[in-house]
Amino acid sequence: EYHPVGVVGAIVPWNYPYHNVLNPLAAALFAGNGLVVKVSEHAAWSAGFYGRIIDAALAAVGAPAGLVQIVTGCADAGAALVSGGVGHLIFVGSDAVGRKVMAAAAPTLTPLTLELGGKDPFIVCEDADLDAAVAAGLRGTFQSCGQNCAGAERFLVHEGVVDAFASAAATAARAMVQGPPLRPAGVDCGAMCMPGAAEKVAALVDDAVIKGAKVLAGGRVGAGPGQYYEPTVLLGVRRGMAIWDEEAFGPVLCITPFKTDADAVALANDCAFGLGSAVFSRDTARARAIGAALEVGMTSINDFA
């Protein structure tokens, strides 16, 4: 038998404010629960708009008024939600804050679901459809200027096709138009949202270049005003570079060649993060076998989720 837990609490980040509210809402309500969702202080401006949509939807189906509550505030508001007696808690954000949330939930043994950072591996075998792999890889890296929880950050490409893949990715990245999203002609890649984010990405790229990586496209903080970092392609990223281990959360496509499937799996699993992944091969049985060996929460075959 399955029973509702009562009230679900959710603490969600700023990068997809509408999705980050609606995702826990759908799960909680369809399982018979109420929901209190604490939105990021960086996206609080949109909370009232979403709240009116939710209230109207609940009223339209005859659901109890107030079944979903949106809370704004900073860390103290999140802490109050963690210790406030919810039946289940959802947290989406960084691993550093996730550890604090887990520690705060421990005294009351509050059940907890965490979705933390990611450095998703994107494996391209020598028999892959390169056009499809490049297209999906560009979307996985540069969508929302790379500010994605499940974002393609580590491209492990077979040595037989790495040059062709890198060339195609770099050509596309250099052709991308970056700027404000309301620009009449449109843009391909926008800005970094948080102050200092562009400089953080620049530090990771500069460290990689000093340690031997080659910049094929981008590699610089963009022209202001605004937090812009150019769509960037790096070739030769390896262990020992800060960007190998740290989540960039920005528009940087990092390429590392591999020789065998076993090498690709070992490289992919050499990371503290394990959110998503992708494997590209025309042999779907081979791709599934590689995916099954990855220490991640989900794997897409010949696509990027």
Question: How does this structure look, described?
Answer:
The longest helix is centred in the first third of the chain and has 14 residues, at 17-30. With 305 residues, the chain is α/β, with parallel strands linked by helices. The chain contains ten helices and twelve strands. The strands form two sheets. It has a seven-stranded mixed sheet with strand order 8-9-10-7-6-11-12, sandwiched between helices. Strands 3-2-1-4-5 form a five-stranded parallel sheet, sandwiched between helices. Strand 11 (278-280), helix 10 (284-292) and strand 12 form a beta-alpha-beta unit. The chain is globular and about 60 Å long.
Structural key phrases:
305 residues; five-stranded parallel β-sheet; 10 helices; 12 strands
CA radius of gyration is: 21 Å
Number of helices, counting only DSSP H or I runs of 4 residues or more = 10
Averaged pLDDT, please?
95
Outline type: globular
**Oligomeric grouping of the chains:** single chain
Strand order of the largest sheet: 8-9-10-7-6-11-12
Helix-strand pattern? EHEHEHEHEEHEHHEEHEHEHE
Distance between the termini: 32 Å
The proportion of residues forming helix, as a percent range, comes to: 25-40%
Instruction: Give me the secondary-structure category.
Output: alpha/beta
Count of DSSP strands: 12
Low-confidence runs: none
Percent of residues in β-strands: 15-25%
What's the main sheet like?
A: 7 strands, mixed
